[in-house]
Amino acid sequence: MPILFSLCSCRGLASDEKQSAVELDAVLQHHQDMQEKLAEEMLSLARSLKNNTLAAQNVIKQDNQTLSHSLRMADQNFEKLKDESDRLEQHAKKSVNWLLWIMLIVVCFIFISMILFIRIFPKLK
């Protein structure tokens, strides 16, 4: 009888080990499936990140081109404004110069006219 008991217990242990091995295989398979899912998800996220990065790169390139074009236009406008400002300053100097001479002539004419007026019409007594 003791030998029979030991054979039964060995069979019980073998079936427990088989069940344990089956459960272990199932757990390992589940973990492997989860790792594959995570790897696929990481791959899709990496692709998405790459696409987003390329799109952002294109937008930044377009913005840089727009900024450089705007900078060139601003430089051209600044140069034109500087030229026109110089022309206006020269014109203003000429106008002030002529205006000054005209006013000086008018004042001298009025002064001489007053002197002649006083000489022609002396004081009444």
TrEMBL record:
GO molecular function: SNAP receptor activity
GO biological process per UniProt: protein transport; retrograde vesicle-mediated transport, Golgi to endoplasmic reticulum
Signal peptide start and end residues: none
Membrane-spanning parts: 98-121
Family, per entry: Belongs to the USE1 family.
PANTHER family, per the entry: USE1-LIKE PROTEIN (PTHR13050), VESICLE TRANSPORT PROTEIN USE1 (PTHR13050:SF7)
Listed name of the protein: Vesicle transport protein USE1
Source lineage: Eukaryota, Metazoa, Chordata, Craniata, Vertebrata
